[in-house]
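tl;dr need the bound structure. longer version: we got a ligand (beta-D-glucopyranose) that a collaborator sent over and nobodys looked at where it sits. i said id run it. heres the input, straight from their email, havent touched it
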Amino acid sequence: MRRIVIIINVMLLNVLFLAAQTKQPVSEIDKKVDALIAKMTLEEKVGQMTEVTSDVVSTTANGVHNIDADKIKEAILKYHVGSILNVSGHSYDRDHWFKVISDIQAEAAQDRLKIPVIYGIDAIHGVTYTNGSTLFPQEIGMAATFNKDIAHRAGEITAYETRASYIPWNYSPVLDLGKSPLWPRIYETFGEDPYLIKTMGKAIITGYQGNDVGDKYHVAACMKHYLGYGFPLDGKDRTPAWIPDRYMREYFLPPFAEAVKAGARTLMINSGEINGVPIHASKYMLTDVLRGELHFDGIAVSDWRDIEYLHDRHHIAATQKDAVMIAVNAGVDMSMVPYEYSFYTYLVELVHEGKVSMARINEAVHRILKVKYQLGLFERPVGNPNDYPKFGSEEFRQVSLQAATEAITLLKNNGNVLPLKKGTKVFVTGPTANTMRSLDGGWSYNWQGDLADQFATGKNTILKALQQKIGKDNVSYEPGASFDSLQNVDAAVKAAKNADVIVLCLGELSYTENVGNIDDLNLPWAQTELAMALAKTGKPVILVLAEGRPRIVTQAESLANATVLTYLAGNEGGDALANILFGDANPSGKLPYTYPRFPNALVNYYRKNLENGNSDDKHGYNPLFEFGYGLSYTTFSYSNLHISKPTLNENETLTVTVDVKNTGDRTGKESVLLYSRQEYASIAPDTKRLRAYDKIELQAGETKTVTFKITSKDLAFVNDVSKTVTEAGEFTIMIGDQVQHFNLTSGTVPSRTGRL
Ligand code: BGC
């Protein structure tokens, strides 16, 4: 009886709250959500805001992870848990995922209101935790393609294969600014440039979500990690950042603003703290900016344990309960708790105590249920195994191969040592030569990617791909070094002497998050020692860098005749590299970050003039390779850069054209990058900024005219009072070696929200 009275009271309160909300026009889904919320108890609502990891509801026996009947009952029937995430142990077969998701949704159907669970997964470069899936290059490689169509297609395929694993929610893409080369998650980003991140992010999000996120081939994207995660002061994961509001808005926010406009349904919050404020506690970032300015209406989910950490790590909440209060009031809709139910217990108490309002709870639950409806989970909580015949197909593999091929970046090719001739005897060596870990990286088959060699069955390491390409008899192999120590260098040197060319594979193994923290950006010395020993043989050295971030390789690189960067090119990376080394593919990747020459000279390409140094200053901007750099086996020349008018007024469009000619003797692809610079402005202008790009293919001898449209909004910047403005003055446009100037007439002041 008491329970019935409570339920009726709760319903009345809900009706009142919802009535107060009806000022704005509501969609059919909003109405359904409101009707459902009106039936929910506080406990049921708080349950929707609770997310636990699969370990909490699983049992493991003989290495097999199954949903545990008692644990799932507790999660659903006692705590009304709204969301579950992650994988237990390592990747599953599709049929195992079917069982896992079916067991969860069957239990959800037993709860009073039968609200389906939303399952989330990190399918960040393909469906990382489903055996036999298509694994693409990590985001850093995708960015190097400068090809939005490939990113979009990879997004579509990933969505298809995620739904084929019965999962509707993907914790991707990372839209963080990959600004610090030390940061162990650089490879999860689209690099250091805000425009590249913004455009690649949009391409992949629209691929994930399609026109109807609720159909059986699309998933909800989760842009992450909002905001300012990619620039920790000391380069280590989840350590403090100092980012002034102006810089936050200039460099970090635009990709998220664009993703909101592209319709991204969910967002994950940065685990770090900025200017001393953990983002999980920042009402300014989570409510004022995210909702008030960006108008995001989807789910804001915490990152892993981050509400708990407001107490344990950040020390801004005196108790765990305070942490819950602060985070929910700041604007966190769902807590990735994820190991237990204290969030649920505390939040129920906090509402009873009047410390968190029912309106705030209803707002969060509305967002969560709306996404569940939009995903079609109420009609189709699991999905049909027969709907996905293309899972892991050859068609999808070809797209991954193309992405890897267009990502791999040729940084040096002295004397055109590459491509190699088919009869060449190759000696392959180095710690990244024979492991899938250095192609796939973290988030591959398990969190750290350290099981990739066991699970990427049938996929070729660099060594195996070269053996397949030219026959085992033409390839010799000695590891020469592990990641950080020499291993029988004498054997390596001896084998090198018997070969025509050395393919020296250096770089990193897989890692992510804090496990990947480093104290030194230099590549471990043993790898350089191996390079020095091999270079002494006098044989040409092809240096292959398979690495998640740009480790300092200056000394080893200076010994190489050719240098090729594979980033983390994914499951087809070995084959793509072999095709490139032997001329069956022409490289076209360009650097999405600045490759540093020295560990203490870490300056991004959009540096300020002060960072350029002056003519007698040896310590100015001098990276090993610049952002946007990358060679081809053919050559391109740029000419006739033309701008449609010498003066650009507000609301006008500048049309920029340039001719690009393939001046070599083979077909090639070229990423055409347009930069601009404002010569003088009230805030020190950046040396240059990427404003547009396009990727074209040219036959030998062919010329194409590439056209870009630039508006005054594209030239805006955030001023000293955090307003996005344009200022009148002289601008320079740069494409390849071509330069043009124009004037922008009177400065305009677009509203902050308009520009964001
Ligand atoms: C990472 C997120 C990830 C989440 C769920 C966290 O540790 O920071 O990027 O989505 O775990 O696996």
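gonna send this back to them w/ a short note. The pocket of beta-D-glucopyranose is lined by residues 85-86, 122, 171, 224, 268, 303-304, 513 (CB under 6 Å).
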